[in-house]
Amino acid sequence: MKKLQAATLAEFDWQNVTEAIPLYHLYSEDCRVQAKTLSCHQPIASDSAFSLGMVAEVSEAIETAPWLYRRLFWECGLIGQVLYLEAEAAGIRGTGIGCYFDDSVHELLGFKDSQFQSFYHFTVGRPLEDKRLETLPAYGHLKTIAQ
Length: 147
Prior knowledge:
two-stranded antiparallel ribbon; NADH Oxidase; alpha+beta; three-stranded antiparallel sheet
């Protein structure tokens, strides 16, 4: 955590918000515009309860074992799965955000080198039905083939 704190902007608060997990408050402000912009201008990031980006320390890891790069993505995906499940358990929804501007994330956090890398973004909030999508019964197409 100390390496990450040293790599970010000096004005971040770094106040621990819970003893149970290493979760820190960095900044208090309305960040909806930044969330939407960083997530390829997708409103889902700014219209949610919260949006987050996961970063990992990569330079040291891939220097010693390059195969760890792929594993860092797997670990972020595992955290994303936990976020999906916890959101469902809380009666809301979550989704991974597949498009984000990692260089802009690095700039926003104050990263000056490649020690840390943005790996995965996620958002959690109340679901909205997308009327553009159509849900069909599973294997419904097989009924017409069998007739």
